[in-house]
Amino acid sequence: MELGEGQVTIDSDGQVFSGGQRVDQLVVVDFNRIQDLNKEGNSLYTYEGAEEDIVQPEEIQVKQGFWKIQCEPHRRDGQDDRNVPDV
Are the beta carbons of 12 and 27 closer than 8 angstroms? Predict the structure, then answer.
């Protein structure tokens, strides 16, 4: 993503604006198999699972200036959360 001059803003749909011009779109995804995420450091993760296990969440709202991700705990694959390794 290349940002131009000016203030950067992100709207609730994830559209990224720089200096009032739309420059890109954030894509928010979820993973059916979170154990396929590998922590690389500095909040960077890589995913080595199957593409069909990448899903788009049903309801997303992006809020600029927030650092916390808030979601309901769930498992789409039916596994018990207690058996999932930390990522």
Answer: no
* Whether the Cβ atoms of residue 45 and residue 39 lie closer than 8 Å to each other: yes
Q: Please identify which residue in the block is written with the tokens 């809020």.
A: 63
Question: What range defines the domain where residue 37 resides?
Answer: 8-73
Is 31 part of a structural domain of the chain?
A: yes
87 against 61, higher pLDDT: 61
What distance lies between CA 67 and its chain's CA centroid? Answer: 12
Closest C-alpha among 31, 38, 36 to residue 71: 31
- Domain assignment present for 81: no
Provide CB contacts within 8 A for 24, sequence distance 6+.
Answer: 1, 15, 16
Q: Strand, helix or coil at 39?
A: strand
Confidence grade of residue 59 (pLDDT, cut at 50, 70, 90): confident
